[in-house]
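User: Show me an example of a complex going from sequences to structure tokens.

Assistant: Sure. Here are the input components:
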Amino acid sequence: MVGDQSDPRAGPSRGKRHNSGPLTKENGGTGNADSDFDKLTGGTGKSSDSSRPPGSKTGDNKITMRPAKGKKGPRIDIPENGSKPPETLHYDKPKQ
Amino acid sequence: MKNKIKIKCKNLNNLNKLIFSGFKSYSINYTSQAMIASLYLKLRNNSILNIYSETYDIGPWDELGYLVFEIISVEKTDVNFVKLDKKWLNIDKIEKLIYEDEDISIESGLVIKTGDEELIIVSSVMPYNLELKAKFLDLEFKPECYINRYERVNFKIER
């Protein structure tokens, strides 16, 4: 996993995805979802052309960021990679 | 109390009746990163059924996908439809794929059967994408949950 596991909400989801906190510092995380998404996608993120929420972006490696919505903070979805399961990184909603 | 999240029909009634009428062709709508954003089915009456997935928040971090259906108008020049064998004009059975847990029941997929073939349409492990499986498709298949985790429930025609 590349996301923080210290939050009690971290762990396997009901599906195959693993829920994690933000990208860890060891993996280059900054605590900021936009910066971390750029790091994870090498800056290749483009607006998503699917039914995803407005403002979503996807990189060439299929890593996707969904923006904060309502009470939810941004989420970064990482596809499975070899033996690593798919992972969703959860960020706190940015303070206004 | 158990939360029941059903298939969402945006601008149509009697979804099962529409699908039971059969379909002639299909088109897969890919994102620019080659993920499946939606599936178009051209029905017997030439209307086009657009199928995609949205997500429902079960808890603070946990979510599951469910299917959305809508009739859309598509210009012929916009989409390349792939013709299907005539057997798909005669649908034998439709089943819902339902994820069931102590606090949630969510309709995440559909199985459409004709003869010995079936088309599985289900929410992807990547939120807001679809996964498809059928003999006539050569695609990776990565549903959100292991496929045997979903209960198959007969989607009867409403007469």
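The lines above are the inputs; the final block is the predicted structure for all two components together. The beta strands of chain A are 11-12, 18-20, 46-47, 57-58, 64-66, 75-78, 87-90.
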